[in-house]
Amino acid sequence: MTDWKFQRDAIKAFRFVRCTFDATTGVAQLVYAFDDGPELIETVTVPGAPFTLEGERAVAAERALQLLHLIAGVSYYKAAVPEEIRIDSYAIDADTAALLELIYVNGLGEFAYRNGLNLHEKIRFPVAARDDATQAPALGLREHALVAIGGGKDSLVSIEALRTLGIGQTVTWVGGSQLIRACAERTGLSTLNLGRALAPQLFDYNREGAWNGHIPVTVLNSAIMVLAAVLLDVDQVVFSNERSASYGSLIEGTGEVNHQWSKGWACEKAFGEHVQKHVAADLHYYSLLRPLSELAVARQFARTDHYDAHFSSCNRNFHIMGERPANRWCGVCPKCHFVFLALAPFMPKPRLVGIFGRNLLDDPAQTAGYDALLEYQDHKPFECVGEGRESRAAMAALAARPEWREDALVERFAQEIRPQLDGTELGIEPLLVLDAEHRIPASLWDRLRAQFTA
Ligand SMILES: CC(=O)N[C@H]1[C@@H](OP(=O)(O)OP(=O)(O)OC[C@H]2O[C@@H](n3ccc(=O)[nH]c3=O)[C@H](O)[C@@H]2O)O[C@H](CO)[C@@H](O)[C@@H]1O[C@H](C)C(=O)N[C@@H](C)C(=O)N[C@@H](CCC(=O)O)C(=O)O
Ligand SMILES: Nc1ncnc2c1ncn2[C@@H]1O[C@H](COP(=O)(O)OP(=O)(O)OP(=O)(O)O)[C@@H](O)[C@H]1O
Known about the structure:
GO biological process, one term: regulation of cell shape
Strand order of the largest sheet: 4-1-2-3-7-6-5-8-11
Keywords: Cell cycle, Cell division, Cell shape, Cell wall biogenesis/degradation, Endonuclease, Hydrolase, Isomerase, Nuclease, Peptidoglycan synthesis
Bound molecules: ligand LMILMEGD, adenosine-5'-triphosphate
Order of helices and strands: EEEHHEHHEHEHEHHEEEHEHHHHHHH
Number of strands: 11
Distance between the termini: 63 Å
Family: Belongs to the MurL family.
Shape: globular
Strand content: 5-15%
Radius of gyration: 22 Å
Largest sheet: 9 strands, mixed
Oligomer: single chain
Number of helices: 16
Structural class: alpha/beta
Pathway: Cell wall biogenesis; peptidoglycan biosynthesis
């Protein structure tokens, strides 16, 4: 064991070794290994210990912990993608295996594409328990929402919408981002910071040639928050994933690859139903923004300037280690490009330029980035950005506005790209129509719809 070396292509099995939760400290340990190599221990910390877990609550907590263990394994599994997956200390049924295969194959879709790997038919979770047909009981959880906050515009829209409806909420985030903390504090609501530390060996393995790439981080954060909800006696876990997240990048010769698959509807539905069936019948996991396009979210966000000096959607802020942009918006990544464009039709120009510190649409150096968003001579970037038709509609709207139409990239769109497009598909209004597919509790949705259509 001491002379074990990470040799990616020699590894035979990925092992889910065990998972434990210490109710006196609130620390969960998620333990994995490759073959008989060292234990890889990820920790998740839920503030509020000690927790009293008895009877059905204890069973639900154990199930939520196992679900988290199984989903969080994706960070380590991806490092070698071995043939075999083993679960050492508990057994899962076919239903759970199917959920995990769905999450691993699709959530690692971009990872597989970029690394030239084919994961279809390769990822098989071992089924060793009979199908559990029994429905998990309701725990009598208190009516309250743990609302995920990511530092960007989307979660702030949800938080303000729930505030308007008078729903009790705790603004919750995973990890140590100071930017997210600042946004959370700016809400003036109660906050909850859940700790997460990856196993340190993963960074060594990355240097030693591990496969690396995007992982389905949203469903992972969702599983952490589901565990927290059981422990903290809360009946709702709320995310802010918009409809547009269900659509990926169309790659010639490959098909659709969705960077943000775990923000999409298929993942929300499968994960939410699993939680309700296997963890607690009265624990509701849903995205409050599922019926909205990115443009509809941008329109909602623009209605208040309360967060202008605090929020950022630029993912360069969110590295565990390494560089951060100097002023919250790097200005050159796909998220900066898209958020600037999506907000432009709904905000006075000086306000938007003030937020970003510059006018991205008047900078010819950003041409290639905007072409990709428009799906012009390129595919949609692998990032959380809206659909190509949303970017095209936003550009078309700006091309009709005197304050925007002379800016370099808007002018280029009007002269070079728009003539090649079908003019009937460039309207913003149809993209603001709310979708019917969502898991928002009916009592909430009836009142929410009015806000989102006003
Ligand atoms: C901040 C970011 O974009 N990180 C991605 C980046 O990672 P990088 O190596 O540049 O830096 P770190 O984030 O510090 O990560 C270091 C290594 O750790 C591993 N890792 C990290 C987190 C995790 O949950 N699991 C991990 O295995 C990984 O090996 C890192 O190299 O590039 C990585 C490789 O492509 C990405 O995996 C990193 O993405 C993070 C998981 C992340 O949190 N990304 C979000 C900002 C993000 O992309 N959110 C999506 C949401 C969609 C979804 O749910 O899929 C989005 O906004 O598009
Ligand atoms: N560190 C985190 N902890 C918990 N939830 C998170 C974290 N980061 C992102 N999320 C949640 O994941 C979902 C997707 O994140 P995303 O980055 O799209 O949202 P956002 O930060 O609110 O807005 P934007 O799209 O402008 O960046 C959101 O519900 C967000 O609240």
